[in-house]
Amino acid sequence: MHASLVHRSEFLKGEDHLTGYQIRLGRLFNPASGRSFVTAIDHALTIGVPEGNEDALGTLQTVIDGKPDAVLLSPGLLNLAADKFAIQGAPQILMRCDFIINHDFLAPLGATYRQIATAEYAARLGPMRW
User: Fold this and answer.
1) How confident is residue 17, by pLDDT bands cut at 50, 70 and 90?
2) Residues 106 and 76 in one domain
3) Same domain, 70 and 12
4) How many CA atoms within 13 Å lie on the side-chain side of 24?
5) Which of 53, 66, 93, 109 is the most buried (most CB within 10 A)?
6) 47: confidence class by pLDDT, cuts 50, 70, 90
7) Contact 62, 92 (CB under 8 A)
8) Is residue 43 part of a domain?
9) Mean of the per-residue pLDDT values of the chain
C-alpha cells in the first residue's frame, strides 16, 4: 500500500482527520492491494497520434468502458471530453501538465522539457490536484 495512504480502518481507530491528499489517493488506490490501474491516453502530445487512435474520443470511450481507476489525459483531450467524466462512477482524471521531448520529430523545438498547463488551469478543468 502507498505509504501516504491512510486506510479507512486506521482513520476510524483514532486518526482525527484525513488530508485532501489522502482523500484523493484513497479514491485512486485500492485499499486492500494498494494498487491502481491508470490508463495513459496522452501519447499524441509527445510522440504524435499512435496508429489506430485517430479517433481520440472513440478511443477514450473504449478506455473508460474498461473501467480503469484513472485516465491520464492532455489538457486538449480533457477539454473535448470532460462530459465523459462528469458522471458517478467515472474514472479519476489525471491531467498531463508537462512533457519531455522524447521523439526525434520534436527535437527542433530546442527544449527537452515543456510545461503546457499550470496547476491553476488543471484545477479549473477538474482533474485530481496533487
Assistant:
1) low
2) yes
3) no
4) 12
5) 93
6) low
7) no
8) yes
9) 76
pLDDT, tens digit (0-9, with 9 covering 90-100), for 78-102? 888 989 998 898 999 888 887 776 6
Local structure of 67: helix, strand or coil: coil
Q: What is the pLDDT of residue 83?
A: 92
Q: Does 77 reside within a domain? A: yes
First vs last Cα of the chain: how many Å apart?
18
Place of cell 520529430: 105
Q: What confidence tens digit (pLDDT) does each residue in 104-127 have?
A: 766 676 667 778 788 887 777 765
d(CA 113, CA 110): 9
Which stretches of 66-125 are DSSP H helices?
A: 75-81, 119-125
Using an 8 Å Cβ cutoff, are 77 and 59 in contact?
Answer: no
Residues 26 and 41 in one domain: no
Say if 42 falls within a structural domain.
yes
User: Is the same domain home to 82 and 109?
Assistant: yes
Alpha-carbon span 19 to 10, nearest angstrom: 14
Do residues 16 and 72 both lie within one domain? no
Residues 52, 115: one domain?
A: yes
Host domain of residue 117: 37-125
